[in-house]
């Protein structure tokens, strides 16, 4: 951070302290705005994405297009943890993974959360995009936008020439640490974006699959046909993705042993 930015941050902190946080923030008035959207130049990609989404929806709702900047402004929506948010007395340290805080201070709105850097993982093997979650919560709460389904026709975007943010200081975090909606064509770009807008994610990395094939493989059938389902009282040779007979206690120990054996090679794994 250069000297000019440091000095501006100090002045900004003094201004915030002097003005307090009691007044609402007039973000847009008659399709015009003096606010910018600020994040640090080295912010994670999740914050960069959130800034672009925020700019787009403010514009679609109100007609005002807020500039995206990498230097604090006198009137701004400040995204992520940075010198400006710290000067305002805001920190994500006590916020859970993937959680966020939205707070008004003077003429500014601060949205910050627990964010993993690009390529970084949480202690539980996942990622955290808390600031981005906060931005989407802001768009829902204060702009009235809803994302009903993936794709360009799935948005509900109300119109308002003016947008005022009331005095706000709210903190929230997801209860479930792994939130997914599998089998929704999630590899498609528009579905990935919809997942983010729904604040899906995982600070706790979990996987699921057809593990019975590895814990009780079909090769067990020859010695233990009773471990597999029967048809008319006759064990059926397993094909495809077979499942054992879970009412039979026989497969329990081999399944547990196979699960335990899978963990040592992956000491950071949260599930086998």
List the helices and strands and how they pair.
Blueprint: H1 3-19, E1 25-28, E2 36-38, H2 45-62, E3 67-69, E4 76-79, H3 83-87, E5 100-105, E6 108-113, H4 130-143, E7 146-147, E8 155-156, E9 163-165, E10 169-172, E11 178-179, H5 189-197, E12 201-202, H6 212-215, E13 230-231, E14 234-235, H7 252-262
Parallel strand pairs: 2-3, 2-4, 4-6
Antiparallel strand pairs: 1-9, 5-6, 5-10, 7-8, 11-12, 13-14
Helix pairs in contact: 2-4
Description:
This protein is an alpha/beta fold. The chain is elongated, with a radius of gyration of 25 Å. The protein has helices spanning 3-19, 45-62, 83-87, 130-143, 189-197, 212-215, 252-262, and strands at residues 25-28, 36-38, 67-69, 76-79, 100-105, 108-113, 146-147, 155-156, 163-165, 169-172, 178-179, 201-202, 230-231, 234-235. α2 packs parallel to α4. 29% of the residues lie in helices and 17% in strands. The chain has seven helices and 14 strands. The protein has a six-stranded mixed sheet.
């Amino acid at each position: 951070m250069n000297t000019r930015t440091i000095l501006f941050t100090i002045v900004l902190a003094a201004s915030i302290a002097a003005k307090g946080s009691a007044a609402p923030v007039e973000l847009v008035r008659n399709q015009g705005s003096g606010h910018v959207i600020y994040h640090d130049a080295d912010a994670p990609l999740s914050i960069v994405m959130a800034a672009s989404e925020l700019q787009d929806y403010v514009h679609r709702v109100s007609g005002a297009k807020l500039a995206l900047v990498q230097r604090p402004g006198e009137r701004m929506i400040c995204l992520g943890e940075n010198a400006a948010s710290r000067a305002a007395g805001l920190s994500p340290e006590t916020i859970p993974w993937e959680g966020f805080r939205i707070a008004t201070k003077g003429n500014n709105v601060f949205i910050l959360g627990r964010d993993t850097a690009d390529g970084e993982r949480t202690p539980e093997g996942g990622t955290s995009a808390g600031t981005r979650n906060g931005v989407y919560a802001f768009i829902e709460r204060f702009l009235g936008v809803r994302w009903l389904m993936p794709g360009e026709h799935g948005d509900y975007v109300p119109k308002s020439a003016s947008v005022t943010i009331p005095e706000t200081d709210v903190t929230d975090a997801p209860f479930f640490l792994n939130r997914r909606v599998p089998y929704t064509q999630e590899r498609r770009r528009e579905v990935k974006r919809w997942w983010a807008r729904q604040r899906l994610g995982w600070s706790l990395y979990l996987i699921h699959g057809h593990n019975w094939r590895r814990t009780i493989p079909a090769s067990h059938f020859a010695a233990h046909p009773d471990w597999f389902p029967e048809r008319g009282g006759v064990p059926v040779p397993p094909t495809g993705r077979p499942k054992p007979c879970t009412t039979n206690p026989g497969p329990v120990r081999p399944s547990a042993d196979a699960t335990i054996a899978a963990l040592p090679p992956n000491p950071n794994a949260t599930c086998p």
